[in-house]
Design brief:
The protein has helices at about 40-50, 60-65, 80-90, 115-130, 160-180, 205-215, 240-255, 285-295, 340-350; strands at about 1-5, 25-30, 55-60, 65-70, 70, 95-100, 140, 185-190, 220-225, 265-270, 305-310, 355-360, 365-370, 375-380, 390, 395, 405. By secondary structure, the chain is α/β, with parallel strands linked by helices.
Length: about 400
Amino acid sequence: MFRILVILPLLFFFKIYASEGNGVDKYIGVNVNPSNHNLSTEEMLRLIETTGFNSFRQELSWGNVEDRKGNYVIKGKNIARDDLIKKSTALGLKPILVLVYSNKFYNDGNYPITPESRKAFANYAAWLANQYKGKVKVFEVWNEWTLGAGMTGRGLKIPPESSYFELVKETSIALKKVDPEIKVITGSFNPMSPTGRYLDYNDTTWFLNLINLGILKYIDGVSIHPYSFLNVNKKVRTPEENFLRIEKLEKLLVTASGEKKEVPIYITEMGISNFEANGGASENSSADFIVKYTALISTLPYVKGIWWYNLIDDGNDIKEREQNFGFYHNNVTGKKVVEPFKQLMSKIRSGELDKCVASVGKSAVEIRNINSEKLKECMSWSLEHFSQYNRITGDFDSCKDCNNIKFSK
């Protein structure tokens, strides 16, 4: 697994908790579906906070918010989501909100790519920005456009980049008119995918085309979903290779931007499912990945946050992939990731980061504080393959040294 080699006074290797006015803040958050579980708002918020997260991500879909043309309401499933946002500040949690999907009153319920539907989408965004002014500082425009998310049954013909660009542009202008301090992010693509699902090119090429159209003028960051536990290249399934590809992505974005400055990245979804079928991972294996990846990503200054998917399993069917991404089981008992993640977050939040860099070698990873001469190494671990479900044996492969995380005092 890994070991932390510093003594107590120098356990201050990252600062990743969010606070106003600090330019080095980093969000470590989680995706939530409050309407899917029998928890009160207070119980949900406390679970988020005690697990070590400082943020959460959720959506309030356009079709539910604008229930008649020009009429905006909070109803149904959105009541629990609205309550979560409004009460989150008491615990210092920073929500981000995803603006998503179509509305049956515009463009026949298809993608909002006509002038009327784009304007209506922007109006819905502005209404939410006014509702949560001072509470939500980051808005994400759309979710997984290239995968047709939320648009199933409509032919899944992905509109061209120009349509997406215009939607983001109009929405961003509307949001910043409400509050210039709002951060607008977009993309939600997977830079790990070698090919596109519905496009003839991969997601990274799709977003580089958007940069050529000028999308960076209207956003404050690029959101990505670098899921890799099902990647055809098994090396990419490891936390180390995924991390290295995030570094490569940043270089691509900077080059495409034509400016010699960082392009902020927000990892708004990342996760591993514990389902018992081909591609699934055991609780030991996913815990190992999550803790290592969180530590690695925390060393990248241009990555402004990561939101794990998700807080609680959405169901009880252990064979169903989409139901088993949680840090907690559906009955809200903790999985094996919870305690080591809490320990890592406790160490991280105990102090400030001077300067910490990660080095991935051929056999090991070292995370070093380059401003410290006496205790240069903060963390280290040996490389190992990512253990997953073995369809031949009908069980998970053993994960050497998994769930054996030691934090020195």
